[in-house]
Input
Amino acid sequence: MADLTGIDAGRVRQLEAAEKARFVAERPRSVDRLEQARKTMPRGVPMSWMDDLYEHPPVWVSYGKGAYFSDVDGNEYLDMYIADMSAFCGHAPDPVVEAVSRRMGLGNQFLLPGEDAIPLAEHLSARYGLPKWQFTLSATQANTEVIRLAREATGREIVLVFDGKYHGHGDATMVVLEDGEVVPEYDGLPSGVAGQARVIGFNDVGSLERVLAPRDVALVLAEPAMTNAGFLLPEDGFHGSLRRLTREVGTLLAIDETHTLVTAYGGLTRKWELEPDFLTLGKSIAAGVPLGAYGMTDEMASLIAPPEESYVVSGAVTGEVATGGTLFANALSLAAGRAALTEVLTQDAYRRTAALGGKMAGGLRGAIDEAGLRWSVAQEGAHACYFFETVAPRDGAGSRAADDPDLRALIRVFMANRGVWESGWWLGPTVSVAHTDADVQRYVGIFGEFLAAAT
Ligand SMILES: Cc1ncc(COP(=O)(O)O)c(C=O)c1O
Output
């Protein structure tokens, strides 16, 4: 019997067994490496997510170019996951390869500013509309510093995030709702994080108003459209209410464009004319070379002030907001960021990727219709997401209710066996600057092949 997704659960199990067996059989070298790696690395991978994110064993990658990458067994994949959006520039984009090679030859790490810092900050300022910028190595660290600045600016501790969010592996935002209570999301976190956070549903203006009312929230940290629980678009007027309500109670607003920066030049902040106090970026802004950044208003920037007195060696209160790191804003990351933003992520690239994203969403809808299913597709620019439900959800709870993890896992392994690297379960496919019309057609064709096999 077909379940809510319209696909029979028995058929899913049957296909899954065959596809998983094929996946392993066709990747003997990856399987061997995993075995060997288990001797020196927990779970057999250099970073646990490389095992965590997939229901099949990880493939070991040999190289990537453009919209494709290859594994050590010689399998080639059309990449629709693009490394959780961090490879939006395509793999090994020529301008970034050149800039990084040149910079490496000239020295990469001085703990001093170099030739790329000013052009990069000026570019970000013009592109995203916030006047002042600081650089880290990741979006997680950018969000961490933004939270500290907001706490200092407001004299409050609480951070408000939306259910289904992900803003990186910083303690302050790794909280979830359980039976209406905020609790730590992972093991290893101090229980105190829950007391410093509030979590409400996206698009829920009533709860927002209620939770902000005590005037103890330092910062609302939000993606403009949520990307880590499917793709959840804001309802009309939501962002207007969010900005109005936060201003009314003296709460600061940070818009996290780490993922959504792929959808529009200047992000959705520019497209939708949002007015955040902070804006955070990462992942693809340096073509996947480690670089995070945050923009801020002049008022917030004034908090990054020098200490009032000279430092003693260490071990005394400094009177400064805690920002910085030895490798932050290193010359290599800045060179990569400048080349990626000015030579790869151009206005023209956004016009092309948005058009391809539209074709991808249209193709997915066509394949779903042809299979007689009632699934929905959300899309903005280069990014899309399909849901196993008629109406695309608008909050985290709705997205979880529409989900079917076994079906998603099957789609991913079925596609991998046919040379397509589908996105992670929480995300949805994205075209990169390197994708072509033919790539999108191929992706949609194999998606249709899956639906034909499963229905
Ligand atoms: C919206 C958002 N913000 C921040 C991050 C953290 O990025 P990173 O892991 O590169 O620090 C992510 C990662 O998925 C993200 O989706």
